[in-house]
Amino acid sequence: MAHTPAETLATIRRLFLDRGHAEYGGEAVSQLQHALQAAHLARQSGAEPSLIAAALLHDIGHLLHDLPEDAAEQGIDDHHEGLAGRWLAQHFGPAVVDPVRLHVAAKRYLCAVEPSYRDQLSPPSQLSLQLQGGPMSAEEVERFRASPHHEAAVSLRRWDDEAKDPNASVPDFDTYLPVLEAALISADAPRADP
Prior knowledge:
The chain is an all-alpha fold. It has one domain: Hypothetical protein af1432 (Orthogonal Bundle), CATH 1.10.3210. The chain has eleven helices and no strands. The longest helix has 20 residues, at about 95-115. The radius of gyration is 16 Å and the shape is globular. Mean pLDDT is about 85; it is low at about 185-194.
């Protein structure tokens, strides 16, 4: 199912503008506000464009499924990172896809290697942590560190944790269209493993 870059960008934009006003999992921001804040934090930190794109798109899985906004409160792990990774792999390479796919694992990783990290998580994030498997085991930590994009995933995780300010003023979605367009892969480029 080949799409032109313009069609892919239009689909992503429509997802965020049509569905992004939903609550972000019990936080005081919407899905769109959260995505824009994460991308802004990535850009402010001097991240590569592919990682800025990953920061913007990291929770797109929440916009792709039809589960209720309070799925975590109902004890449901929506596996949004896997859904996002599979969908994004149709359009982007590993530098975008892998940090998105690994951002939940990065939370579990940080809880295992930085004991104080867990205490800094918001209540909704602590709830989802339990649904997602809790802190990693030593074996899981080693597997996570073996991923070539694990450091990018950890950076993305930290922006994810910070991107929950209901009063933040950040650039709008269209500001990031050139970043997304530059990150798109051509039809003949190698694709990420979904």
